[in-house]
Amino acid sequence: FHMLSCPDYTQVDHINRDGLDNRSFNLREGVKVNPKNKGQQKNNNSGVTGVYYQDGKYACWCTQIGGTCNRRTRRFSIQLYGYDEARKMAIKVRNEWEKELEYGKYGY
């Protein structure tokens, strides 16, 4: 139905994230990065999108951003920085990347 409302758009984004709400004021032109316009996953253990704890021999807090072709990833060792400091550093880098890449511009 939304393709009738927005025939020129190759992709459509639902502003309120409800894919069944196809009212015209809830639709906007989508871009390839907009599928990231979604809530946090249930298994998110940091409270911040794109920041996660990786357990194992080399335990670390990791941050990543971007898609298939332009992904950035950075790891902060718990052994080197400590648990809390590594988490703070990962969140800080993620926030810097979001500003640099204008992620807020698309609503996520």
UniProtKB/TrEMBL annotation:
It holds the Pfam family AP2. Residues 47-98 form the AP2/ERF domain. Keywords: DNA-binding, Transcription, Transcription regulation. GO terms for molecular function: DNA binding; DNA-binding transcription factor activity. This is AP2/ERF domain-containing protein. It comes from marine sediment metagenome.
